[in-house]
Amino acid sequence: MNGGAMHWRRRLMVQLGGLYGLWLREVMRAFRDTGQLIGGVSRPILWVLILGIGLNPYFRGEVYGAVTFVVPFTYLQFIFPAVIALNIMFTSVQSAVSVIWDREFGFLREVLVSPLSRTTVLLAKVLGGTTVALLHGCLVLVLARFADIPITWADLPKALGLMALLAFALTSLGVVIANRIRSFQGFGIFSNAVILPLYFTSSSIFPLDPALSRAQTRVVYPDWLVTLVEWNPLTYAVDALRGALIHYNQFDPLLGIGIIVTACVVLFSVALIDFYRT
Amino acid sequence: MAQPDPAPSADAIHLNAISKRYGRTLALDAVSFNVRDQELFALLGPNGAGKTTLLHILCTILRPDSGTALIDGIDVAKNPLEARQRLGIVFQEPSLDDRLTVRENLELHGLVYGVPRKLRRQRIEEMLALVELSDWASKPVRALSSGMKRRLEIARALIHDSRILLLDEPTVGLDAQTRDRIWAYLRRLRAERDITVLVTTHYIEEVEDCDRVCIIDSGKVLALDTPEALKRAHGQSLVRLTPTAEADLEAITARYQDRLTARKGNELTLVSDDAFITAFLAEFGTRITALKVEVPSLETVFLTLTGRELRDRAAGAREQTLAFGKRGGEHTR
């Protein structure tokens, strides 16, 4: 193998082998981080069991005797897909912290001088984060029976596919943030400043009434809130997930998939451009 | 410098007029040299001389502003992935994953460099044995001392078919015993495997056994030859002497003003040669309490070439700038 160009197939095998190695590293690291695992388990329990069950009786619309609107679901069923999205969101964005770790503790160098292209390195990192986030999403799915959600074999692949795409998009988002913010503390603050507002304004914990027209919605809710919810891309992702799990969509389900895929492509491209620039 | 080699592919490393600038500081000023196949080549210079910058250019982390660098005949700027496949690199700062175990780090490296499974397993055991870390294979890297981490990094750089091993200050910050061990590994390695080693250091005593030494300072190559040839060409012998009384010291200082290189307390260091010693002893032989003759060493070679000692220098503004550049030059804090 002295001199001359390597065969393209051999080159591809090197990239794939490296992709597998780095992906495996991300996953192994995540499983050795007990803090992250505890968060991944406690967060859904908190939301589903405490908030969901606690608020469940108030979701019938009969607040103060006046029936405003009724959706054919319990509150627990309604927020369940959103809690999956929340768990994926936290894990994805947090796993991007390892970008900062790698830079700070020198491991990034080892990878940058390896025969792997930067695309492979970044893809491995994002796929690793995606895998871990998907598993954390599945931790929530385990609670489905407590939320009275019957998951059929037909729904499951649909839901898992959407969760994987969502995890990929959000991990890419985390990497984009991590590339711009270079300290651990800054990342923590910023990621929380992104995660929670995105989550709260994604119609995840309260529905925009599907029975009302656009104009009526703006009467019931303040204008700014409706605008925020409609502009938040996560709204459509949560909606698509809801479609898969409880067969309830506020928007066109294809719109949700379209938005998640677009987010995957755009965010990964931005992360890649950043990575080639550094 | 010599003319660039007409057939550069015969050399393991070929550098032609590499320049690199960080802002206004010129870190490398048209550096050219060749490292021959299977050579143990040392790059010697003080902190901030440009050694690390040069290594970073060779391993494609940095791009030179001008000039070409070939690894095994492959241009690092045009074909970085193939050039990197041939390199084993040990950086100055550790670059291990400390949450993984020793063996996992090596496995990961093997996967990343596309080493087939069987060969990977075999190499891992061999290299762990070479750097005497076999007993630590399943311990997390976090548990290792800094000397062990450095050894592990050397092992890691050898898991794939690296033809050229680059080591950036492999012994800095380690105790004398560990330093000796690391050099012993390198020597053993060269006996067992066809490999070219380029090592940077600022410890002069370490480069005595190298095949060739390149002395670099302020981004320029000052000399390049075998240690013996360097000593012959640039070395001076020195005498260190202690005069009996203050008056003697004054007299000697006045008489040999042009030969005086250093004065520490009441010890004088003079440039010496055979004729000088005879003349000196005839004149002042009764007026000194101690006299020590030092034969040419690389230390004196360095002193002659750069006009200063290699060690004991605080980081100046220039070094700080370069260290900043090395870290990536990011204004974050």
Automatic annotation (TrEMBL), chain B:
Entry keyword annotation includes Transport: yes
Gene Ontology molecular function: any one: ATP binding
Domain of life: Bacteria
Alphabetical list of SMART domains matching this protein: AAA
Spans through the membrane: none
Residues covered by the ABC transporter domain: 13-243
Any single Pfam family the record assigns to this protein: ABC_tran
InterPro entries associated with the record: AAA+_ATPase, ABC_transporter-like_ATP-bd, ABC_transporter-like_CS, ABC_transporter_ATP-binding, P-loop_NTPase
Key words, A-Z: ATP-binding, Nodulation, Nucleotide-binding, Transport
Entry similarity comment: Belongs to the ABC transporter superfamily.
Protein name, entry field: ABC transporter ATP-binding protein
Species for this entry: Devosia oryzisoli
Organism ancestry: Bacteria, Pseudomonadati, Pseudomonadota, Alphaproteobacteria, Hyphomicrobiales
